[in-house]
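Re-running Fructose-1,6-bisphosphatase class 1 to confirm reproducibility after the cluster update. Everything else is unchanged from the original entry.
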Amino acid sequence: MNSRTTLSAWLDQGAAHDPALASVVASIAAACAEIAVVLRTAPIEGLSGLAGAVNVQGEDQKQLDVVSNDLFIKHLGENPAISILVSEELNQALQFEREAGAGRYMVACDPLDGSSNLDVNVTVGSIFSVLAVPPGADDAALLQPGTRQLAAGYAAYGNSTSLVLTFGKSVAVFTLDAKGEFILTRDGIAIPAASAEYAINAARERFWDEATRAYVAESVAGETGAAGKRYNMRWVGSMVADIHRILMRGGIFLYPLDSETAAKGGRLRLMYEANPMSLLVEAAGGRATTGRGRILEVQPTGIHQRVAVILGSAEEVERVERHYAATLADA
Ligand code: P6P
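Result of re-run:
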């Protein structure tokens, strides 16, 4: 891809089909570009370490969680098309002051996912989802299934900064250049249907359900097992890093419901982790399930609802689904 197509030029060419929606994505990208700059020198600026507060998830907030959340509030608050921000770092939805009837979009985001990896310089990311909301929407209007997303994506702050974006039909990748512009570097991402790489936190084996146990056992058995091929395992502990690898070369990511997370509905959050990642994966030809149904069809009951997440290469997700079907049939 020789020509340098900037994100703004790509949006102007009509990718979003709606100039206001394009402006929402541009505001999100501006927040991510500023977060990337802050992260690059954070240890020098004394921005590593804890903020001294606990967020709604009960997690110790890092200073950079707060800084990233503030940058989303700044950039999204400046865009009159956006009326509501749902954030992992905010207990309640934030309603921006808007003219009567203005502000048709809400953004749900995890401003800095995987922040436990910051101190060891491992890729972290910002995850975002865009939905339409009526002006003056009440909380119930925010609780929309992932099929209603108008755009979704993430920024991966790694050796380069990638912005990975979909409006539901295809997936494009932009890379942040030295001047702070996102440049189109890949388009039409397709996840290979077959893969031999799975991502799961294997230390949780004692909590797994029967379907997860059976899927992993088959993968570990390699050529001698029912899967009939050798597998490799990767687990970064940063969802954006694991999902980016899967979008780039295939694989499957599993954070299933287990005996420890079941009481909370799962580990990962539906509206600003599972749904945006599922829209990306499905737009790239993959599949995304809770094990008991399509993630994008889950009806949220709360903005911080958690859910089981199993997504990636279609053939691998189908193998997991076969094990769930078998165990549910036995139940
Ligand atoms: P565990 C990071 O805290 C996160 O939300 C995701 O980015 C990541 O995939 C997962 O949790 C890691 O969970 O249980 O391995 O620490």
